[in-house]
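Fig. S4 source data, part A: sequence.
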Amino acid sequence: MIAPAGVVSNTIFMIPSADFNDPLRLSQIANTIRRSILRARDPKFLEPWLATVDVLMRKNARENLRACGQFPNEVIVNSSLRFDWANLVDFGYTNKCRCYVPRASPL
């Protein structure tokens, strides 16, 4: 568990990445995602993020609102499509990278 027991954000941990410098190059996408992962592991970033998500998710539940809102010029992609991440990109763990998505088996 990342946060104390009972915190809603233990089950929902989605942090947007920065914009991709070159969205057509997989290595640029991988580098951007890697930076997001490193930032998400920093307790100074993570603690206020989780506390905020917990408050907002509880508010959404009380008001019967959706968990993921829609925003102009944004898209959510279901990444269940298989990519050969281990051989195409390096997230800092050469040949050890795997992609897992909620409610899915390992790709």
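Fig. S4 source data, part B ends here. The chain has a mean pLDDT of 71.
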